[in-house]
Specification:
The complex is a heterodimer of chains A (about 300) and B (about 240). With about 300 residues, chain A is mainly alpha-helical. Helices cover about 75% and strands about 0% of the residues of chain A. Chain B is of the alpha/beta class and about 240 residues long. Classes of the chains: A mainly alpha (about 300), B alpha/beta (about 240). The interface of A and B includes residues 171, 175, 177, 181 and 191 of A.
Chain lengths: ~300, ~240
């Protein structure tokens, strides 16, 4: 039973991190029907920014919760700026082009960012500091739940509630939904589409960066190529849930996290990725629109 | 002395290599209702899209209240009070009726004014008040058209561009919609450019009309002239 609970919690935390990344894919797709292949790189940049920020702030004497939260905020802001810039440079100039052009531009951007971090930082695995504060109150249940898992669940649930409230109750959130549903009418209502798209990229990047910080805390090492596989997994999660659907991305990510965790625990850890992609293939065959997605007719 | 509100001179608009407007000239005075008539593919919708900046024209001039607006961004024109209700209503299906109305006031900042306008709309169309929490996609066609027109009113239009407001609606609903359009014109003094397949109906409402054929204005005159003109009746009004 303990073993099952272990796998369950590791699946839940893994799925939560996928969800943070998957939200960026699904929100961008929902608005401009683009698969932003550079999104995994933003997550990687979030992790690297967190590492650098923790070194600087740590040497200034910051510790505990203060260190973790300020590192997360810095990583989020810096990656948000990256997300905004990527959209401005790589996608906005191609707004009127065929759908293939921004897709290729996205792949190019992904390679560029990977290689840039590899050159500017290192091509080796680097150690990520232990940023998670001690939690004495966990002592009685420490056999089941560790402090890193608490942080992951805390960060992801707060971000998801925050995102939901933002989209539901703010004016720009309403505009985001309007643009996703009918871009022409949103323009005719006076919405500045470019601004909404920028906000979408920034929010997606902030969430991905938080994912990067959390994965650093839990794996304790990061790598310039880490965004590729994580990005693929999160993309799988978004497709699984129905790309364009926000709750879908979260559900898809959790399913993927559990599937991977149980596959690794009951079959073999080398089957983790195999199971993830088998799920993707099965979904694409039997329910191409995903769990929460609606079958859509091609817009003319 | 009548004041010209909107004027198009030699407007040419193309989709790729296909020229949809080949030099359109028309003008609309403040407070008028103008009908823009013509067969399918004559360029009526493209004319509206050119005015609102959805499809920027290649050449020509468009002036709105004395200001050159050719190539201006759509959202800036909405701020100036040039508001379009597109063909097919374009209700945001996943937004509630209330949110749809709020989207109409997106460019406005005066919250108490928006509140007052909402009350006005709910008085005008009580059905929208009862359905305010429903998502827009669940409304019937007639209700959606009411919502579309109400949404455009929320933006405090100086001028409304209506594209086929009667399309796909039952005759009794069409009469309601046209009564509302007349009311908007007489009570609020809103200038209206009406694109309509149903020429008879449009001419009953309009002060003047233009007829388009293949990207050009081919005929213009007052509505009563058109209704009494034998040739126009034969060609456009079904005898």
């Amino acid at each position: 039973m303990t073993y099952f609970l272990d796998l369950f919690l590791s699946g839940l935390t893994r799925g939560s991190i996928y969800a943070l990344i998957a939200l960026g894919y699904t929100m961008v797709y929902g608005i401009i029907a683009l698969i932003n292949f550079a999104h995994g790189e933003i997550y990687m940049i979030g992790a690297f920014t967190a590492l650098l920020a923790s070194m600087v702030l740590g040497s200034l004497g910051l510790t505990g919760w203060g260190l973790l939260l300020s590192v997360a905020v810095i990583a989020a802001i810096y990656s948000g700026m990256y997300g905004w810039t990527v959209e401005r440079i790589a996608y906005r100039p191609l707004r009127g082009a065929s759908r293939l052009a921004p897709l290729i531009s996205a792949i190019g951007m992904s390679f560029f960012l990977q290689n840039y971090v590899q050159l500017a930082q290192t091509s080796n695995f680097v150690l990520f500091p232990d940023l998670v504060p001690q939690m004495p109150f966990l002592k009685p249940i420490s056999a089941y739940l560790n402090r890193t898992q608490v942080i992951i669940l805390l960060f992801t649930s707060v971000s998801m509630v925050g995102l939901t409230l933002f989209i539901k109750f703010t004016k720009i959130g309403m505009a985001m939904r309007a643009v996703a549903q009918d871009m022409t009418m949103a323009r005719l209502s006076g919405v500045n589409i470019d601004r909404v798209i920028s906000v979408t990229f920034i929010i997606g990047s902030v969430l991905a960066a938080l994912g990067g910080v959390l994965i650093g805390c839990s794996m304790r090492q990061i790598y310039f190529y880490m965004g590729f596989l994580a990005g693929m997994k999160a993309f799988t999660a978004a497709v699984l849930g129905g790309i364009g659907s926000i709750p879908g991305a979260v559900i898809g990510a959790l399913i993927l996290g559990f599937a991977e965790s149980f596959a690794a625990g009951y079959i073999s850890s080398s089957y983790r990725d195999v199971v993830a992609f088998i799920i993707l293939i099965i979904i694409l065959i039997f329910r191409p629109e995903g769990i929460m997605g609606q079958a859509q007719t091609q817009k003319v | 002395m009548t004041k010209t509100m909107l004027e198009l001179k030699g407007v040419r608009t193309a989709y790729g290599n296909i020229e949809a407007l080949k030099g359109v000239d028309l003008h609309i005075n403040e407070g008028e209702i103008i009908a823009l008539l013509g067969a399918n593919g004559a360029g009526k919708t493209t004319t509206l899209a050119s005015i609102t900046g959805l499809v920027p024209p290649k050449s020509g001039t468009i002036t709105f209240e004395g200001e050159d607006i050719r190539g201006a961004r759509t959202e800036n024109l909405v701020k100036k009070g040039l508001i379009m209700v597109p063909e097919g209503r374009h209700i945001f299906p996943g937004l509630t009726v209330l949110e749809n109305l709020k989207m109409g006031a997106y460019v406005l900042k005066d919250q108490s004014g928006i509140k007052k306008d909402l009350e006005y709309i709910f008085n005008l169309f009580p059905i929208l008040a009862t359905r305010s929490k429903q998502s827009g996609g669940t409304l019937s066609g007639g209700e959606q058209q009411m919502l579309a027109i109400s949404r455009s009113l929320m933006g405090k239009p100086r001028m409304l561009l209506l594209d086929e407001p009667s399309l796909g609606l039952a005759p009794i609903v069409i009469r309601d919609i046209f009564d509302t359009i007349r009311k908007i014109n007489t009570e609020n003094g809103t200038t209206i450019l009406l694109v309509e397949q149903n020429a008879n109906l449009a001419l009953m409402l309009a002060h003047r009309a233009y007829i388009m054929t293949t990207g050009l204005i081919t005929l213009s005159g007052t509505a009563s002239e058109f209704l009494n003109d034998e040739n126009v009746r034969k060609a456009y009004l079904g005898g």
